[in-house]
């Protein structure tokens, strides 16, 4: 399995060995929700009745259900592995590390703290700068949305953002010179019920 995993990691452009990747997976798995959460436990008895009355199943996972934690675990691990440190981001932007921290504090760059150190998702950078229109998108992003949600949104094709003749990701839309306000409008809706 190690050789196969190393091949997959190399093809994906991840800069870790198989052992390092598995350590990341173990660490992220520990920080995720319990392996078999009981959805009903999150609600009061009155809320449980109301939810089941409208047809929601609060019974939890069945043996034949896909394990959603595995998909989230993989996404978090890749997000963490590809994220830049403050020093990495400063080198990309050719600025002092204090400027990166200032941009993070002002909401002009996206990031999160991991064990006391800032991590900045790679999707927001280009080879020699910041993604065009990034500040407009970040200003519209609801503050309660975690980095994984924003990363997923920015890297998932959206039907309303045509790049060429196909739906493009918000990142590709911005790289192609698309109006950042269209991406910001969609980003503002993240986390709101449909």
Q: Can you give a write-up of this model?
A:
- The protein has 194 residues and is mostly helical.
- Among the domains are: 2-67, no CATH class; 131-194, no CATH class.
- The chain has helices at residues 2-11, 18-31, 45-53, 68-82, 86-93, 97-105, 134-140, 147-154, 170-175, 180-187, and strands spanning 112-114, 117-119, 125-126, 129-130, 158-163, 166-168.
- The protein has a two-stranded antiparallel ribbon. A two-stranded antiparallel sheet has the order 3-4.
- Helix 5 (86-93) packs across helix 6 and helix 7 (134-140) runs parallel beside helix 10 (180-187).
Assembly classification: single chain
Task: Provide a count of the helices.
Answer: 10
The description of the largest β-sheet is: 2 strands, antiparallel
Average pLDDT, rounded to a whole number, is 82
Order of helices and strands: HHHHHHEEEEHHEEHH
Helix content: 40-55%
DSSP strand count: 6
| Uncertain segments | none
Widest sheet: strand ordering? 1-2
Protein name: DNA-binding protein
Compile the SSE list and pairings.
Elements: H1 2-11, H2 18-31, H3 45-53, H4 68-82, H5 86-93, H6 97-105, E1 112-114, E2 117-119, E3 125-126, E4 129-130, H7 134-140, H8 147-154, E5 158-163, E6 166-168, H9 170-175, H10 180-187
